[in-house]
Structures are given as C-alpha cells and as structure tokens.
Amino acid sequence: MLSNSFTRPQNLDKIVEKFKRRDNPKQKYEQLLWYAKKLAPMAEEAKTPENKVSGCVSQVYITSKLEEDKIFYQGDSDAQLVKGLVAFLIEGLNGLTPAEIIKLTPDFIEETGLQVSLTPSRANGFINIFKKMQQQALAQLTQNNELNT
Question: Which member of 39, 56, 85, 133 is catalytic?
C-alpha cells in the first residue's frame, strides 16, 4: 500500500503483485510476453504522430477514449517486450477516471522489480508510456470539463 491516502487501483495492484512474486528476471520477461499476446490489436490508422510515445527506442502508440467518465486505452509496439509493458499499463489503468490516473505516481513500476530486468532505455520507455497515458488522461479531463461548462 502507498504511504499517502491514495490507494493504488485494484487492477494495477494485482499486476504489480504478480511481478513481485517472480524473483527471476526470465519469469518477469515471460510474464511481459504473456501480456503482449493478450493485447488487443490496434488499428493502423490510430498509429499517428500524436499517439506516438516519444523517448522510446521502439515504436509505441497509445490512444484513449472517455466512456462514462472512465478512460479506456489502446496501444501497440513493434517490440514484444515493450508491447507487454503497454499491455501491463493498459490492463492496470483501463476503467479508471482521468483524475485517478493523473494522481498515480510511477513508483509502482519500481515495485515490480522490472527495472532490474529491463535495459535502461526500456525502463525509461516504460515511464514515458505511463506519462503519455497520464497526458491523455489530463487531455480527456480538460476536454470533458470544457464540454460541461
């Protein structure tokens, strides 16, 4: 549990716990590849410069839509491990409100122990993907507030 009053969303917490139970970096990789296989395909027309995650060595795209005040993401990457990271974040963040996503801090990434298993550029990419998702949540929140005023 986090030390502040904001608790981590249940889906995200479950995923973090799964990774924490795997001591071996190879098992963590296998878990990521499993997530990559589960990721729903992303439409090619959604792979636009606006949806591209900057600061990633591989090609990574994230889109979001707001449905009944909850955000739902889609994403893809041309690298399987990175695709697994995208799927991890999508599964952990889908169905949350934009405000919940914006409040999250990336410390859960460290808790998974994935930094040890990932190359520095991939670990940095993981944070960039998370930040892109937060930016989209903020944009959805702003857009939604403008529509309601």
Answer: 56
